[in-house]
Amino acid sequence: MAAPRKLSMKQRYAALTRDLDWDLSYVDEDTAYPYTSFEGIKIHDWSKWEDPFRLTIDAYMKYQAEKDKRLYAVLDSFAQGQGHLQLTDPSYLNAMKLFLQGVTPLEYQAHRNFAYLARFLNGPGPRFAALCQSQDELRHAQTEIHTLSNYNKYYQGFHSWNHQHDRVWYLSVPKSYFDDAVTAGPFEFLIAIGFSFEYLLTNLLFVPFMSGASFNGDLPTMTFGFSAQSDESRHMTLGLEAIKFMLEQDPDNVPIVQAWIDKWFWRGYRLLALVSQMLDYMLPRKVMSWKEAFELYFEEQMLGGLFPDLAYYGITPPRHVEHAIAEKEVLSHQVYWTLYQFSFAAGFTTTVPSEDAQKWLAEQYPQTFEKLYKPLWDKASAVVDNGGRYFYQGLPQLCQVCQVPMLFTEPGDPTTICQRHTEFEGERYDFCSDGCQWIFEREPEKYVQAWLPVHQIYQGNCGGPTVPDVLAWYKLQPGDNGEIAGNVEQTAWEAWHATSSAEEQAPAPVAGN
Amino acid sequence: MTQSTRARQVGVDIQETEENRAVVEAIEADNADCAVRHMPGLVRITSPTRIVVNRESVEQRLGREWETHEFQLAIVSYFGHIAEWDDDQILIQWDH
Ligand SMILES: [Fe+2]
Ligand SMILES: [Fe+2]
Ligand SMILES: [Zn+2]
């Protein structure tokens, strides 16, 4: 008898994925998979779905366990070595709070919806890929919470992120984005999250966040981020596979997919407005500007690389992409200026950028910063010099689709606020941009249901009529919000550093004691 | 025609670690036209044509067996299409 031959990766993948599938005999296919026809996508042969990773369950478990082991080794040494003292500046944690409040709950949502795909896609290949992604996303949610809980021991503001995700005004931006995706059908979800978010835009979210962590002395977040991001490569692949699969299966799928790309590019891009200000303003030590990141990760890689590839199928670059490109000079400044004025009601703190930071901004944005935004900061500084702090009194108008306050300007005119509106069934709805208006007009019945935080406050659904009532309903505690300078965060940081230097001066303990 | 004339970049971002140094060196050796850029915590490799990772080249530099699945521990992100991933090599390039 010949010795058993080791199977190749290709054979193992075929054996452990497709060969374990069986033909249904008790029920017909439509009964078992009832959700893959109503969106109009036509699939003729599910076996054509390819997973380039050729991942099998044994390999998946082995490498995921290794990734977790590496991460927890770093978390242990962080806890044992007083790693929180390595932070460049306490204000850095604002970026992490925003991440925990805004992104972590989305990981959990992704986990749930990929679990649904793992049950309801017709082919065993995509079902298995979705199952792996579902597990990954649960791991991301858990490891993010676990990693950042280390800061919760020393710093304010990490206590109620999940409660806040469902309530606080700026967090309705990521929440409504993902709610929109999970309430779509399975194919649209694959384009929305698998393709647009994971492939087209994820680099703009994760890589700057993680490089920012690395640059600002936050080793655990960097490690967690790269650990999660290594799964992300698989998710990007699933997204790209999904889109190619749909486009190859039937020419009738092309216009449907194109409309989803158009919609989900703009939805994702508006969500990233929060990331733009994080890169340019929240990180004490800057990694790269939003403009540079956008050019590198989006214009070069996606418009220059991906879209010429998709042109083969008749796909064109997303609608309204020219507005995103034009906005790269102004986006982050407009967003942070708004957050600065409203941070009394936020789960993070803001401040006037330092002189060094403003110099850096002027270098990165030679055409816009000094002319348009420096004067605003000069004004805000003057208020601070006189012992005050400028906060906006009142609530902002929100865009009905992206739910960002209406702070964006007209394409090509950075001094005029862009406002669009559409009437639907006798009511007026307002939008921040042509992109959001177009999305609304495709599916008005969906977006009229939006839970807009400002409207909800006025309707009396958010704890009461006064600002303190609303903040209590948000579970914001003193020190979570407002101005950075003089905040408990800074006091805590200074206290920790004072203690640590005192200890350094003390005689070192004898080894073996 | 086998010679590619496309100037569309493909790329891969790899976590900067001791072990991955061997992976990065193997990629540099096997992809004459690639460019390497160091960013905080990661190494970014781009190429105007394609990027190939060969198991044997990595094993030579690592001095131990290395299965291509292990690349999952190294990769942070990529752009391009994973055209091949088998026991001996990983190939990233655009399809069309
Ligand atoms: Fe994730
Ligand atoms: Fe993901
Ligand atoms: Zn909008």
What does this entry look like structurally?
The complex is a heterodimer of chains A (513) and B (96). Chain A is mainly α. Chain A has one domain (52-486): Ribonucleotide Reductase, subunit A (Orthogonal Bundle), CATH 1.10.620.20. Chain A is 61% helix and 4% strand. In chain A, strands 1-6 form a two-stranded parallel sheet. Chain A has a two-stranded antiparallel sheet with strand order 2-3. A two-stranded antiparallel ribbon of chain A has the order 4-5. In chain A, helix 3 runs parallel beside helix 6. The longest helix of chain A is centred in the middle third of the chain and has 31 residues, at 219-249. Chain A is globular and about 85 Å long. The model of chain A is unreliable at 504-513 (pLDDT under 50). Chain B has a single domain (10-93), classed as Alpha-Beta Complex (Phenol Hydroxylase P2 Protein). Chain B is built from 3 helices and 7 strands, in the order βαβββααβββ. In chain B, helix 1 (18-30) crosses helix 2. The chains are: A mainly alpha (513), B alpha+beta (96). The interface between A and B is large, with 45 and 32 residues. The structure holds fe (ii) ion (2 copies) and zinc ion. Residues 137, 198, 232, 235 of chain A line the site of one fe (ii) ion. One fe (ii) ion (FE2) is lined by residues 137, 198, 232, 235 of chain A.
